[in-house]
Amino acid sequence: MSDTSINMQAGSDPVEAGFGDYFALLKPRVMSLVVFTAFVGLLVAPVSVHPMVGFASILFIAIGGGASGALNMWWDADIDRVMKRTQSRPIPSGKVTEGDAFAIGITLSAMSVVMLALASNIVAGALLAFTIFFYVVIYTMWLKRWTPQNIVIGGAAGAFPPMIGWAVATGGVSIESVLMFAITFMWTPPHFWALALFMKGDYSKAGVPMLTVTHGRKVTRTHILVYTLLLAPVALGAGFTSIGGPIYMATAIVLNLLFIKGAYGIWRRDETAAEADQYRVEKAFFKLSLLYLFLHFGALLVEGALKPFGLGGW
Fold first, then answer.
1. Which of 115, 149, 173 represents a domain boundary (last residue)?
2. Measured CA distances, 222 to 37, 225, 227 (Å)
């Protein structure tokens, strides 16, 4: 199907794309997570940066994240047309052509990497470039359609922003930034597998080899519990480093207990009960997973914000 035919409604003129349609290409919800975690990584770093440098850096990180989203939508346009939850995106809805999405993604990728390197340092720019490459090439073009471990390995792409923020301030990588990366990396599989439990039909129809499609929901439930148990010590471990403190540790303990409880509840479920209540437990766990990541990084942000006043940290 050509771009022209995609952009034609039955018996009408081509759909006119607006600013909102082009902005939607950048996956603003994903971009907001990128901005937030990168900002936390920047703020909790032991080296302060000029406010204008910090603002510019976060802006270019956000643009780089958005560029990744545009390239992801360009490559996955065929899948997005099949899956119910993605059919309203700019390309499958016929508002933006695949060619335009590719041009926007490539242009913004190059601009964001170069400008971040100029605004902060080469290390931060290189990390952003690798993040875009990893998300678009390694995850989107390769892993997503090839292996049920797609979201496990591909989750690294979404875990890099706090490392980039840290590198903006320090010019390097440390145990603290690695642990911030690890929290998001280990959180990604149970988060997306919970979604896949009640969206299995969509993934199956689109031919995406999610774990629920290739190994079934029972195996997926076990994987969610295992990764949740592995995530807890990583999240708690960050609390013993220079970015941690009593506020973060209290938050991490409560959230990880709730997360483990939720994962255990999912593991115990059988499909008859899940279908009977329309995956109520699974949906609740998915919502909790969103809160889990936000509150962990929010607690780190509070610790970092209080340090200048002698209140944050240990």
1. 173
2. 28, 5, 9
